[in-house]
């Protein structure tokens, strides 16, 4: 039976690696997975999913205008779709998550989403919140804070390497911009304890 999955974590927990391995497993069995990534994220090239360990793959693009139900209906006239794998799922809209649930329930196609749970302020992304609410299976991937504890949060750094305590929710960046922390260090950073950003500089360098 098809299900809607959400694999979530802070940054640098191996979400893209897991997605690409999952796609490989489908192809190895002669099945056809379709990969999606957010059009807003061009860090590795447009329509490209890349992991920190060197795995890469081409992907379809989604933005706020993408209708996954209409897309599936059109695509299945060309070839069967055995699974949909979505990277950067935090950028999905609430309505798109609802569409993906319909793809699972009515189209009988499994959907596996990978994304961040919260933004740099510790607030849920709307797409992630909806996935947490309605996904059939929730799986947390583990990232590590500089203190050795599980990192569940992410901070954003400015050009001087200090923690930003306000700003837009969506700013695309990699390890030069974002650092994963445990809740205790995340709270200290947002409270204005810039010493909490110091280990982040060490990790970056």
Automatic annotation (TrEMBL):
Enzyme class: transferase
Subcellular location: Cytoplasm
Reactions listed under catalytic activity: thymidine + ATP = dTMP + ADP + H(+)
Main location: cytoplasm
Catalytic residues in the record: 88 (proton acceptor)
Record's keyword annotation contains Lipid biosynthesis: no
Binding positions for Zn(2+) per the UniProt entry: 145, 147, 182, 185
UniProt-listed Pfam families: TK
Family: Belongs to the thymidine kinase family.
Name recorded for this polypeptide: Thymidine kinase
Gene name linked to the record: tdk
């Amino acid at each position: 039976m098809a299900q809607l999955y959400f694999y979530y974590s802070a940054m640098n927990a191996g979400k893209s690696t897991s997605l690409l391995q999952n796609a490989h497993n489908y192809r190895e069995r002669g099945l056809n997975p379709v990969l999606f990534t957010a059009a807003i994220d061009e860090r590795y090239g447009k329509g490209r999913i890349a992991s920190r360990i060197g795995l890469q793959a081409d992907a379809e693009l989604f933005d706020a205008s993408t209708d996954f139900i209409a897309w599936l209906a059109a695509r299945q006239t060309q070839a069967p779709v055995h699974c949909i794998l979505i990277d950067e799922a935090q950028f999905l809209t609430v309505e798109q998550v609802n569409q993906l649930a319909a793809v699972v329930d009515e189209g009988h196609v499994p959907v596996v989403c990978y994304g961040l749970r919260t933004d740099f302020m510790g607030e849920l992304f709307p797409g992630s919140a909806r996935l947490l609410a309605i996904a059939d299976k929730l799986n947390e991937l583990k990232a590590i804070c500089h203190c050795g504890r599980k990192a569940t949060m992410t901070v954003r750094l400015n050009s001087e390497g200090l923690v930003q305590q306000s700003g837009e929710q969506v700013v695309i960046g990699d390890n030069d911009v974002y650092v994963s922390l445990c809740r205790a260090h995340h709270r200290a950073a947002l409270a204005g304890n810039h010493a909490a950003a110091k280990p982040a500089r060490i990790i970056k360098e």
